[in-house]
Amino acid sequence: MKTLSATEFSRNFSRVLDSLEHGGGEIVILRNKHPVAGLIPGAPRMTAQEVFADLYRTIDDAEGRVWLADIEKGERLLSAETKEAGPWQP
């Protein structure tokens, strides 16, 4: 855990935020050598590709096949409903 005086924090605000964003770790702000605030990094951002890659690792093969079959079934049902309703009906 890193500590900064209130003066150091105010003079280096942008660098402190960069440090939190890229380096992680908690920062404690001191005023007159007493802690007055703590800063923690925000939740990390993930791209859609990273999210799906993570999802891929958590589903075993059998569950993945069931999930894929459900998706295909839903697509067939939607296709059938669209054909029944016709292209101009909601």
Description of the molecule:
The protein has 90 residues and is an alpha+beta fold. It folds into two domains: 2-39, 3-Layer(aba) Sandwich (YefM-like fold), CATH 3.40.1620; 48-85. It is built from four helices and three strands; from the N terminus they run E-H-H-E-E-H-H. It has helices spanning 6-11, 13-23, 48-58, 61-85; strands at 2-5, 27-31, 34-39. Strands 1-2-3 form a three-stranded mixed β-sheet. A hairpin with a 2-residue loop joins strand 2 and strand 3. The termini are far apart.
List the helices and strands and how they pair.
Blueprint: E1 2-5, H1 6-11, H2 13-23, E2 27-31, E3 34-39, H3 48-58, H4 61-85
Parallel strand pairs: 1-2
Antiparallel strand pairs: 2-3
Distance between the termini: 58 Å
CATH architecture of the largest domain: 3-Layer(aba) Sandwich
Largest sheet: 3 strands, mixed
Count the beta strands. 3
Number of DSSP helical runs: 4
Beta content comes to 15-25%
Shape by Cα distribution: elongated
CATH superfamily of the largest domain: YefM-like domain
Rounded Rg: 26 Å
Class of the largest domain, according to the CATH hierarchy?
A: Alpha Beta
Q: Briefly note the CATH topology name of the largest domain.
A: YefM-like fold
Average predicted local confidence, pLDDT: 83
What are the low-pLDDT stretches, counting only 5+ consecutive residues below 50? none
Number of domains: 2
